[in-house]
Fold:
Amino acid sequence: MNLIAYFRSIRDKFLHRSEFDQDITEELRSHMQHRAEDLERSGLNRAEAQRRARLEFGAQERFREECQEAVGGNFLDTLDQDIRVSLRVLRKSPGFACVAILTLALAIGANAVVFSVINSFLLHPLNLPQAENLYQIERGKDKVSGQSYPDYLDLRDRNHSFDGLAAYNIAVAGLDNGKEPWRAWIEETSGNYFDVLRVRPYVGRFFQPSDERGANSAPCMVLTYSFWHTHFRGDRSVIGQVVQVNKRPFTIIGVTPPEFHGTLMFFHPDFFVPLVNREQIEGTGHLDVRGEHWIFAVLGHVKPGITPAQAIADLNAIGSSLEKTYPKSDGQMFFALGHPGFYGDYLGPVIQAFLGGLMLLSGLILLAACANLGSLFAARAADRSREVALRLALGSSRSRILRQVFTEAVLISLAGGAVGLWFSVILLRALSTWQPFAKWPVYVPVNPDINVYIVALLLALASGFLLGAVPVRQILHTNPYEVVKL
Structure:
């Protein structure tokens, strides 16, 4: 029964707050009335007795707050009051509020931009299923990513560590649908490319290993979603249409999903064609030349339970066999694994170092902004020392004043964070569509996601608590009577 009574009291506290306040007010009035009657019986007149009773009880608001805290209080009501008071105070100081908000907007916005770049390039570099165990094979001391096609076939068929290995190569070609010619960047891929990456078509189908039956045996192509929308206006009837690629007929069989742009971070191809048709695209095949190691990149998913070290050992065993079998063409056939988004690890360390420096710089900008605003908050607290002293003299608790100061600081930081995030989103979306080189399909895919919004919120809250902590010592050591006497 006690537990039921407790939950009923909680319910009444939150749902019948006005009745609770009325009960407190009535109780206080009753106590003061009884005290006034006692004083009146001691010889004071009625007016003087009531005045003396009010002085003895002190600030009624403080008693009301203490009663609310004794029964658990109402956090939402208290927060609402603190927010409304903070907004009124900030409206009286628009200059201070604007300077603080814009300063934090610059600092938090800079951090949001840098984190979005890190989130896109390092934390989630490829929007692919199970991208965490997708590796690109690197060869030799220089860790080059290129392999010859015969070596790729040996690695694909003889390894025991990968679910599958796919090969791809970048090329440029002319495309003509009979109405308008375009210069397009393409990827020549092995027939199992989409299967290895576990990507599903948006429209139509992808080419398969069964389509490969020798050189120039698969004259088909898969459009990227953006190229399909830009040049074919999203027309689904293009599936089955024959177009000219470098004056060779190719049939459009499918469209990739919108989020898929291949496996290189900065390079977005326009369409994909089978690797076995390389001779039709580039005029030369090199598919049977084992010494052409610079042509194809090879990647695949490591099997569950297989570590990267075990996969490398497996590949090196194959490489050692190839060195002995083909000593003239296969030298330095020892391997490493890299991250495919940056063309193995060719660009990875450079980009990581650059982004690490940017993150450090943006963090220092935020700390400098908080330090400068901390000085402003300290000066503002000194200017408001008389107001704080009067509130303390009238019965307000120091904890309530500190809570309102923190609320004011957090409101400013949240407003600054919202403004900074708004500008950063505009900048990031512009960067994502920016193409710095007209002749090259180079993109900077840094569209913000939920992680960026969460980080911006956490930075705003942390900044608010840091700023609110600046005047804490000053408020705790304020002597209301000394200040009021001045």
User: Anything to note?
Assistant: Residues 86-125+349-485 form one domain.
